[in-house]
Every structure is written in C-alpha cells, then in structure tokens.
Amino acid sequence: MPGVILKGLSKRYGDVGAVDDLSLEIKPGELLALLGPSGCGKTTTLRLMAGFLAPEAGEIWVGDRCLSSPTSVVPPERRRMAMIFQSYALWPHMTVAQNVGYGLRFKPGIRRSDRDARVREMLRVVQLGGYEARYPGELSGGQQQRVAVARALVVEPEILLLDEPLSNLDANLREEMRFEIRRLHETFGITTLYVTHDQAEAMVISDRIAVLRAGKVAQVGTADDLYHRPRTRFVAEFIGRTNVLEGIATSFDVVAHGGLRLHIAPGALQPGTRVVLSIRPHQVQLTVPVDGTEGANTFRGTVQRAAFLGDTVDYEVKLAGSDLVVRAAAAPSPRYEVGAGVMLRIAPDACVPLAEAE
Amino acid sequence: MDRSIAVWVSAALALVVLIALPLGWLGWLSISGEQGPTLAHYRDAFTDPALQKALWNTVVLAFWVGVVSVVIGAPLAWLTARTDVPARGLIRGLVLASFVTPPFLGAFAWVMLAGPNAGILNTAWRSVTGADAPLLNIFTMPGLIFVVSIYTFPYVYIMVSNILALIASDLEEAAAILGAGRLTVARTVTLPMVLPALASGFILAVLQALALFGSPAILALPAGFHTVTTQIWSLFQFPPKVEQAAAFSVPLLLATALLLDVQKRLLGRRGYAAVGGKGGQRRTIALGRWRWPALGACLVVMSGAIFLPYAVLAKGAFSRAWAQPLSRDNFTLGNFAFTFFEYGATRAAIVNTLELAVLTACIGAAMVALLSYVTNRRLVVGHQLVAFLVLAPVVVPGVVLAVGLFIAYTRPPFVLYGTLWILFLAYLTKEMPVGYAQADATFRAIPADLEDAGRVLGAGRLRILKEVTAPLAKSGIIAAWCFIFIGVIRELSASILLFTPSTKVMSVVIFDLKEEGQFGAISVLGLVMLALTFATVALVQAALGRDVLGARR
Fold it and tell me: How confident is the model at residue B277 (pLDDT cuts 50, 70, 90)?
C-alpha cells in the first residue's frame, strides 16, 4: 500500500490561485481528511490527485510513480485510484451490479464469473446483498451512497478519494455512515484522501487532518493536535469553538490584557510582543465566587447569557474590570443564572499562543 | 489532449464556414460597387417608395402580430397552468398542434375559408343572410395579422406557461398573508414576475412575423401589398437585383439581432430561474361558473387555428370542387391520384423533401451532439465562441440566409446553386440553433461526475462516451433529430429563393400549385406534411417523456 506525496502543487483559475504551493504527505494506509471552508482549494486538490486537472507547478507522487507534473499527467484511468463523488455519480442506466462491476472490467486477470462473485461479496460488505438487479433510481439516498462506496472499493484501488461523500445525507444517516466509512477503512486499509468542510466529520473519520486555507495547508495533525495545539487563529476557530484573547507579553509566561494577567504554560514568549491566545470554552472552569480565593488565572465575572444544550451549558461571562467576554462550557449543574456572579479559572496549559501571521 | 480533439476542431471549423461565408458575402455584396465600396444599394433600396411601403407594412404586421399573440397566448397559458378549466390536456395539445402547423398551410386554408368570393364562410354567410357583400376578406392586412397570429401565439403561451409553472403559489400566498387582496396580489406579485416572459414572448412573436415569407406571399400579394420578405423575393425575380436584395436584407438581420438581444436581457434579469423554490406548490384556482365559458373561449380560438383549417384541408383533399358542399357526388380520391401520379413535380418534391429532411436531421443531430458536448465539457479553447456561432443563425431570417447562400454558392470556389446541396446547407444552418438548444439541455442534464466516475475506475474518454454518455444522451439527441426534421419539411422562406426546377421541395410545390389554383392538390400535400409532422412530434414526446411545449407529463 503506497503513500502519497504532494510537492509544491499550484493550480490557478483565472487570477484566483485555487491551490497555491501546496505540500502534503499521506502515509501508507492512512486516512487523511482535507478540511476547509468552501473555496479553500480542497476539491481542486482532489481533482489534481485524480488527474482531472493538470498542475501548473509541483508534482504528485504515489509510491515511486510520479503521476502529475506540469509536463506530464497520467490520465485518471491509469492511476489505480477510485473516487466517491458528492453526487455519488451512479450511472442511472446501469443496475447496481453493473455499476459496481464496471471498474473490474479494466482490471487484468479477472474472469467474468470471478467478477460477479466479487460484486456480490462487496455488496454484502456494504449491506446491500440482494440489490444487484435494482437501478440506482430505485434506491434511497443512503443505499445509493453504499453502492458508490462498493463501486470504489471493489476494484481494490491503491488510493481512495472521497469528495464530501456524506453531504447529501440527512443528519442521522450521516452520523451512521461516518462510522461505516471508518469501519471499511479499518477493514481494507486503503490510503485515503477525504475532502470535507465538516470538522466533526473529519475528526470522527480520519487518522490525521490537513486544514486548508486559501490553497495552502494551514496545519496538519491528529484531531487532538489541532484541537489542543492549534498553530493559527484560523485553525483554532475552524476546529471547534474557542475564545481568542489578544494581549502583550510581560514576561516569558505572562500575558497582559488591560488589567488582567494570564499565566501560560509552557511559556516561551518574547516580553513586549503582541500575543494572541486561544482558550477552549470547556477549559474555562466556573465556580461559585468565594472571597479570598483569587489567585493566578482566577477572575471574577458576571453571567451574561446562558444556553442549555443538554450535556453542557453554554455561558457568556463578562469579566469584572475588563471589556472581555469569555465563553465557557460547563456541566449542567451547578447552574448559574443570568446576572449571577461567578469565578473563572483557566489552567495555564489551556492558554495556547497562536502564530500572529497566518 | 487525445485523438478525439481533431473531431472537435473540424466541427468547429465547419461551423465558421456554414455561417461566416454566406453572411460575409451578404454584407460584402450589399456595399460593393464597380468602383469599390459604396452605399448606393442601400440608398436605392431605402429611397424607393415601394420598398419604403413594404418596410412600413412589415412593421405594422409584426407589431400587431405581437399584440394579438399576447392577447391570445397569455390568458390561455394562465388558464391551463393555474385554473381548473376543463380539458387542460386537450387545450395544451391544440396549442402544440398550432405550434407545429406550417403557417403557410394555415394561410391556404384560410384562403379557402374566407376568400371574399368562394370562401366557405362567406358563401355560408351569403346563403344565410342573403347579403351580397362577403362577411370576411382574408386578403387584407387585418386578415394577414389574424392568420399569422393564430400560429404565432404559442411562443407567448410557452414563455408564460413555463414561468407560471415555476412561480410557486407560496410567493402569492406570502403577499396574501400580508394583507394583499386577490387583485393586488395579481398586480404586485404575479404580473411583475410574468412580465419579462410576456415581453419576451411578444418579441419572439414579432420576430416570427418579421421573418415569415409564406403567409404574406399568399395573403398580401393578392391584396396588392408587400412585406420586406416578399419584397426581397420579388427583387430576385427576373431581372434579379441581388445587390439591392442584400442591402434590403441587412436591416432585417440587424433588427432581428437587436430584438433577440433585448429579449435575452429581459429574461436574464432578476434571476427568474431561481423562482422555483423548494417545496413550491402550485395551487389551482377554481373558476366556478366560469369554467365552461373559459373552455368555450379556448375552443373558439382553436377553431380558428386548428379545427376550421384542418377541416377545410380535409374537405379540399377529398372533394371534386372544394367550395361545393360535401356530398356523395362531390367525393373523390382523384386529388390523391393527381397529386401523386399525374402532376409531374410532386413526387420528385416529396422525395427531395424526405431526402433532405433525413440527411439534414442526421448530419445536424450528429453535429449538434458533438458541438454541445464540446461546449458543455469545455473541451476546446474558445468553446464559448463555438456556442455563440451555433446559435448565431437564430438571428438570420430564412429569406436573408437564402440571399447569403445564393450569393456565396453561385460563384467559385463552391458552385452549389441548382443542386440539393445548397438547400441542405440552408436547412442545416437554419435548424442548427433549435437542435443545439435541445442537445445542450441534454448534456447539461448529464453531470460530468458520471463520466469522471468511469475515468477513475479505468475507462478511457472514448469508452466513457460510448458506455455512459451516449446511452444517457440518446433520447435527447433523438429529439434534436426530430426537431430538425420537422423544421426541414415545413421550410419555405429559404427554399423559395434557392430552388431550381429540378430541386423543388414540397413547400415550394404547394406554392406553385397555388399559382395554378390547384387547391385539391394543395390540400393533399398539406395533409401529407401534417401527417409527417405529427408522426415526428409523437416520436419526440415518446423519446423525451414530456410534451414538446416544455412540461413533464
């Protein structure tokens, strides 16, 4: 199972650089999610991978084969890849079995009888056994999705590409299919590139996530990395919700915002420089105010808004003596009413400094 | 890219030659004099009082045809799209019939119905009232406007009913819930939304009237007046004044282009394509006691366009004397024998027409399929230019195209005048936009994903074309074939300038027969033409699974 290396890829549409000097590595057998807002170049990257587009600069390597470079592009049909489309792209004039079996015709050394057996087996794997003679138009959205998955997997591709495959499903089915795709990936272990704009989907499905912004990779890492150690404000705000706090470093591990002093750990700040911090709402602890307990990273505040979300309550707390409003996610009990005074405590290692330039 | 690229490029080149050559020659000849470029032909054409009169007549005709078409087409569209008027399917079918009826056949039928002397309606009127004067005289400007309008209003009908089908009742109900009364809703919501469609239907009707040759030739010439198209035709009669005809054609061409541009802008604004929202339901309006009178009104219109003309053609085909009452003595099959076996020109003309129609439809369908695939999938640089060129003949009235073709192909390097090939070129060029529009819609409905999915799995471009694209596009291309076929068998305005005695087609023979007063034979040929047309329409509807006017069944 080969891995994929994208080296300095660029592709422009008119004046807009859809993909701009993008480099990325997908390890053998890994499922990498390409995550970003619309227009960030993720679909362009996928189509460059598939060979539908030629790069203007850069190269794409799969194992020891160079598939794309500005001078030569191996056509899609010779890349040994498979792709699952957002629209599923099932051929309406072919039955389920014909759809799934289509790619097997181009694999050498597979006899017709063998082909049928493989199609049946794969349909069983995606829980569509017995649907061979149906037409796509006779299936539900979720079933069509499974056919598309079967069609891509049955050819045992070296690389699997998925282009927002779940965006046409309703919420419940989407949740179910996330785990289904993860299960199939663990069964077959195909090197996979998964394009999505849904961060929750990326976190559930992938081994690693590459966050894309304006045609460049903003950060690559596991979901845990990106959530707890975002490098830029963009990544911090794109993956989950966060509080962003700007201030000035007064020592190597203290940031000042107005009258507030915030300790961070580990600290490696240049005193006197501007600092942007990310603090996740669930790492802001709320307690009933008790006199005399104020200390490092502990502040008084007033609840401005509270929204009950089931397993958590979402608070907006205005800090005393400051213009700051901090969002905190706390357990449903104890409950603090709007207007109540609270104490906030923020652990030093929950304050993550972000790179200023993005 | 791959080996298919040669095919795309040559198709695009053919297009340039088909359109650029005749129109280039037309423009050039209109300004060429013995001492270099001159505007003398334009001066001659536009200072001639007779030509000025023809120009004015055309303006009057086109304007009133537009008005009458709106007056007939818009209410009919509203009735069938939004109300519970009985027999909506029948009414739609009859509008479709009027849409595909060759207008010159309708004009002949109305000569037999309302000619001042022998017209059946007039003789009936005289025998009932004892009056001397005829009730109706079709050989007048109002008569001409009437006969053109009853076959032109479907353009307004199609535009308006398709828009009405898109406007969800929600939009009207949203106004009603805010306190607008029924009339206010109609005035402030429905009408403004329909207005661009109405205006663009008006313009399409005007364009039809501008370009029409057959009906004015049949009705205006005996009445002693000309329109631009008949005038151009008469400039071609001996001694031919080709340069003047060219000069006279250019303004017609420009007027058409201008009007089409206005129409496109009207439809392009305010995003009408987006009015069909999600879950947009259309509720029907109950007409109550007006249901049956409304149906009656529709049928009165349709009797003018369909029932009376078709009946009189049928009567003419089976009668010894078409003006006499139906009786056993008057019944004959002689007209059929005369038409098919005795009258020299007809059999050859039917063969010519069918040959040309099949050839044009096959080559045309192949070309538009290829070209619309190229433009839809953006396979060549300049695909926008290709799309523009294929649609360009829309602005060229048949007579003008014929003048261009005549000039281009009566001189080296291509001398085609006198052969069927010049007619073939005329038909191919003229029908290209209709076929292209159909093929374009077909490929637009086939997402590129379906092709890409096959490529990734290992199939090459040509194989995907054969196994995925072709099966999905088949019915749409068959429909394009049929549209071209129908267009060719009814074509008169270009044929009338390009035929020679050995290359007559059906429409031209019908026109000749009129000079000889052979109404029986005209009726027979007319019925043949109608039968061919309706058989083809049936084929389209079967292929597309919807009616030709644009609604799903």
Answer: very low
- Does residue B1 belong to the interface with chain A, where contact is any CB pair within 8 Å? no
By the CB < 8 Å criterion, does B468 face chain A?
yes
Whether B227 contacts B59, CB under 8 Å? no
Please give the Cα distance from B339 to B255 (Å, whole number).
40
Domain count, chain A: 2
Contacts of A93 in chain B (CB under 8 A): 471-472
pLDDT, residue A17, reads 66
Q: Per-residue confidence at B178, pLDDT binned at 50, 70, 90?
A: confident
**pLDDT tens by residue, A84-127:** 998 899 998 899 999 999 999 888 888 888 999 999 999 999 99
Beta strands in B96-248 (DSSP E): none
**SS3 at position A241:** coil
**Which residue among B452, B453, B471 sits closest to A93, beta carbon to beta carbon?**
B471
- The answer on A9 and A133 residing in a single domain is yes
Instruction: Identify all chain B residues contacting A155, using CB atoms and an 8 Å cutoff.
Output: 457-458
Give the containing element (helix H, strand E) for A66: strand A65-68
* Shortest alpha-carbon distance between residue B378 and chain A (Å): 13
Instruction: State which of A237, A265, A285 marks the end of a domain.
Output: A237
Domains and their CATH numbers in chain B: 46-316 (1.10.3720.10), 337-553 (1.10.3720.10)
Q: In B, which residues are within 8 Å of A156 by CB distance? A: none
Collect all residues from A whose CB is shorter than 8 A from any CB in B: 50, 52, 75-79, 81-83, 85-87, 89-93, 102-103, 105-107, 151, 155, 161
pTM for the model stands at 0.80
Pair A233, A254 in one domain: no
* Sign for the pseudo-dihedral over CA of B289, B294, B296, B297: positive
Q: Which residues contact B466 (CB under 8 A, 6 or more apart)?
A: none
Residues A212-271: tens digit of each pLDDT = 998 999 999 999 999 999 999 999 989 888 999 988 999 888 898 888 888 888 778 888
Token pair of B484 as six digits: 């071209």
Residue B59: the pLDDT is 94
Q: Quick check: bond before B102 cis, omega within 30?
A: no
Q: How confident is the model at residue B17 (pLDDT cuts 50, 70, 90)?
A: confident
Q: Identify the CATH number of the domain in which residue A138 sits.
A: 3.40.50.300
Residues A232 and A249 in one domain: no
CB nearest B460 (choices: A77, A83, A89) = A77
**pLDDT over threshold 70, residue A176:** yes
Q: For B409-435, how does the pLDDT look when each residue is reduced to its tens digit (9 = 90+)?
A: 887 777 888 889 999 999 999 999 889
Q: Is residue A45 domain-shared with residue A185, that is, in the same domain?
A: yes
Please identify, among A210, A237, A264, the residue that sits at the C-terminal boundary of a domain. Answer: A237
- Determine the longest span between alpha carbons in chain A, in angstroms: 81
| DSSP per position, B443-495 | HHTS-HHHHHHHHHTT--HHHHIIIIIHHHHHHHHHHHHHHHHHHHHT--TTH
pLDDT (tens digit per residue) in B487-536: 999 999 999 999 988 899 999 999 888 888 888 889 999 999 999 999 99
Assess whether A329 and A228 both reside in one domain: no
- Region B36-47: what's the mean pLDDT? 83
Q: Is A85 in contact with B455 (Cβ distance < 8 A)?
A: no
Residues A189 and A230 in one domain: yes
Contact A87 B449 (CB under 8 A): yes
Q: What is the pLDDT of residue B335?
A: 86
- A246 and A233, same structural domain? no
Neighboring chain B residues of A77 at a CB cutoff of 8 Å: 455-460
* CATH number of A315's domain: 2.40.50.140
CB atoms < 10 A from the CB of A64, how many?
6
| Residue A186 sits in the same domain as residue A326 | no
Domain that holds residue A349: 242-354
